[in-house]
Amino acid sequence: MKMISMNKIFSVLIMCVLFISCKKQFEGFTKFTISYSEEATISSSTGVNLPFNINTPPTETNSKQEFKNEKTRKDLIKEIFIENISIEIKNPSSADFSFLEEVTIYIKADGLDEKSVAWKKPVVNTGSNILKLDVTSHDLQEYIKMDSFTLRINAITDELLTQDHTLNISTKFNISAKLLN
């Protein structure tokens, strides 16, 4: 009985020491998210089984202010990864993604090459008006540190659209950074 109690106490003591030392390792760092939302429209004149592109207007990152709010700045950013990108059909309200065969989203910023960041190939018809995309594992900090970026949607439809489809593209980025001293 005493041996078990001593072992438990010793185990708890070791766990406490490890927890404290691990906590110190993460002091001075922060993790936070930034979300963006843009609209785009797929025209009813879009052809079937042909790739087409839609560009979003430039998205202002407001990164300087976002970083300041989190007590960091862009030179202290360690990494920025996409947590998720989703596309929602806003109009027509009864529409789903059954018309879409595949989709890829690219990011572009001034002075940086365009990069594929999300895709769904093939798009499976679930009857939903929201499509969650697979995302890249690449660090995208150079794009989010810029004043703005644009998204380009490249897609192929497998049905004729009889009316325009208004889409909302939502992106959420995870950011790891050192804190200001």
Describe the model.
With 181 residues, the chain is of the alpha+beta class. It has one domain: Jelly Rolls (Sandwich). 20% of the residues lie in helices and 44% in strands. The protein contains 3 helices and 10 strands, in the order αβββαβββββαββ. Strands 2, 3, 5, 6, 8 and 9 form a 6-stranded antiparallel sheet that branches. The N and C termini lie far apart (50 Å). About 3% of the residues have low confidence.
What's this entry about, in short?
The protein has helices spanning 2-26, 63-69, 141-144; strands at residues 29-42, 51-55, 59-60, 77-91, 100-108, 115-120, 130-132, 134-135, 148-157, 165-178. It is an alpha+beta fold. The chain has a single domain (29-178), classed as Jelly Rolls, CATH 2.60.120.
- Helix run count: 3
Biggest sheet overview: 6 strands, antiparallel
Strand content: 35-45%
How far is it from the N-terminal to the C-terminal residue, by CA? 50 Å
CATH fold descriptor:
Jelly Rolls
Q: What integer value in Å does the Rg equal?
A: 23 Å
Name the CATH architecture.
Answer: Sandwich
Helix content: 10-25%
Contiguous low-pLDDT stretches (5 residues minimum) are 20-25
Q: Can you tell me the CATH class?
A: Mainly Beta
Overall 3D shape:
globular
Structural class: alpha+beta
Q: Output the helix-strand order.
A: HEEEHEEEEEHEE
Report the average pLDDT across residues.
88
Number of domains: 1
Number of beta-strand segments: 10
